[in-house]
Amino acid sequence: MKATIYDIAKEAGVSIATVSKVLNGKGKISAETSKAIYAIMERLNYQPSVIATALTGKKTYTLGLLIPDISNPFFSEVARAIEDQGEHLGYSVIMCSTDNKDEKVERYISLLQQKQVDGIIIATGIDNKDIVEQLLAKGIPVVLLARDMPLIAVNTVVVDDYVGGCLAASHLIGLGHRKLAVIGEKDSVRSSRERIRGFRQTMEDHGIALQEGFLKTCDYKVADGKKKALELLQSEDSPSAIFACNDMLAVGALQAARAVGKKVPNDLSIVSFDNTLLSEVADPPLTTLAQPIEHMGKLVVNMIVEELHGSNKVKQRTVLRPELIIRGSTAAMIRS
Amino acid sequence: MKATIYDIAKEAGVSIATVSKVLNGKGKISAETSKAIYAIMERLNYQPSVIATALTGKKTYTLGLLIPDISNPFFSEVARAIEDQGEHLGYSVIMCSTDNKDEKVERYISLLQQKQVDGIIIATGIDNKDIVEQLLAKGIPVVLLARDMPLIAVNTVVVDDYVGGCLAASHLIGLGHRKLAVIGEKDSVRSSRERIRGFRQTMEDHGIALQEGFLKTCDYKVADGKKKALELLQSEDSPSAIFACNDMLAVGALQAARAVGKKVPNDLSIVSFDNTLLSEVADPPLTTLAQPIEHMGKLVVNMIVEELHGSNKVKQRTVLRPELIIRGSTAAMIRS
DNA sequence: TTGAAAGCGGTACCAA
DNA sequence: TTGGTACCGCTTTCAA
What we know:
The structure is a homodimer.
Chain A: H1 5-12, H2 16-24, H3 31-44, H4 50-55, E1 62-67, H5 73-89, E2 92-97, H6 102-114, E3 119-122, H7 129-137, E4 142-145, E5 155-159, H8 161-174, E6 180-185, H9 190-205, E7 215-218, H10 222-234, E8 241-244, H11 247-259, E9 269-274, H12 277-281, E10 287-290, H13 293-309, E11 317-320, E12 323-325
Chain A binds a DNA duplex (16 and 16 nucleotides) through helix 2 and helix 4.
Protein name (chains A, B): LacI family transcriptional regulator
GO molecular function, one term (chains A, B): transcription cis-regulatory region binding
Organism (chains A, B): Paenibacillus whitsoniae
């Protein structure tokens, strides 16, 4: 059987209260007692039960992480960053892949509450804002990551999607491209929407209009991107550059280009977003807007832990700047 | 404040014992009482505390998952499969990326025990077998996934790495290749070792010897694979085909081929292992030995849950057969 | 400096 | 069919 605080107390000839105190470094305990107790804990390989501790109203040192899909490279990289910082600060993380379904979100949130997680990191799309508000109302620390609900008073870490879109457009326009197309996620995904907005705005600032039919939206997977890119590339009047709103879509576009015999970047430039493993692995490697994934993970965990500690009462919204990483998928427009 | 069993009892004018019974469907409770209590639980939005329940010796409905790195596509896909089946059966999973370091493994395991997880799935390399044995000795359900420690009585799910290696070799030899090289993980990684053993054995069965210097081992990342592949391809006497022991290494090999101007599959065939997202995304898409990831996840969760229920006392070791998926990275040897 | 005892939110045994 | 109550392992007053 595992040793309990009672075993330690009995062995040391003291009360459990005393043991509890040395365990938490509280109250006044004589050096000898303390030392003796430590020795016994060591010898019995005592490990306090997080469960019992949590029941007395303390923390569980567990965080919930809601993401659309842990097998999506962007989110698995985010998860890793969060796990690392969590581990650093003593927290475990429970992963919850929601497939962006509100129904799964609700199930998971309810589960996390029953397990008394100390906080919840939400990096998944949520249609129903009530869900977040209810959490907040219950006083459960929540941080939004890569999702934005500006109207709600909740700590948030996002990358500046709008600026990312602008940078993508500038880059392509600077290379001489004028016929630009966009493949994004469906309109309900705010990050994608913002990227597109930035992209379009920058185009207009340069006096270029986003052509009718050159804006495609779909789900986030490779196959979706490929399908939409094919539509773009097979029309008689096809774009010379595509901005894909994430790496998976971009890879799909790459495949589409190959399928119709267009060479990237010579016949077609592609700019992507995320800078996951995929963008390095693709051929050619993707020019992409890098999200500072590691930093995001660190920040988001710090935020939630600070909120737990009760320090840092004011809600904040941190916006990180994406950085354009130029690789092989973009090239100057060849004048014909 | 969250409603507790006491609130429900008071509201219903019964004892907490009664409420507990209807909650667990135990004992004899009159239909009316039961109905009334359900109604009140509903109204008060009552959610039993997993923490409190766990403290009374019941389960936490939480599983620990030890993997080398959640951001590695193979493991993130495995994690997703495990999470899904876990959710299906009512279990959450805590992710633990170990980087294959025993020290991190031990820290995480100790943490998981303090949190009283119901079971631990180990899919990470462990040098020290004692770690697993200690767990077993404490009666904590453990299942090994994609790792093998045949001498220890522990439930295990593995893919038949040896056969995978054989299939890879057969495929290449069938295509007419004779100068075969291998890039694997370092020798301490059993799965890689077995794949290589199978590959080599099949070569020998065909009267081909694995040439000196044509076996390279390294870490598991893309850059490692690229480096080793470059060494192979830059020697004056270079192989016509490479068997890379996982998708990341294969992608590295692909990059190396490109770097030295060899076309895959015409100048060089590459067979990979895993069939993660990467193998579809690579250009050309990789011929690879598919691990039945989803099935593995399902199986491993079922096994551990069965062990929890006390059913299925006998330890079993399930070996899954990998399947050769032929894509674009392999082609018949061109006679010169 | 130490200890007794009342919780925390449930479960389960034994009575009623 | 219901209820009283002793736990589960730990924290935290309040006294001693």
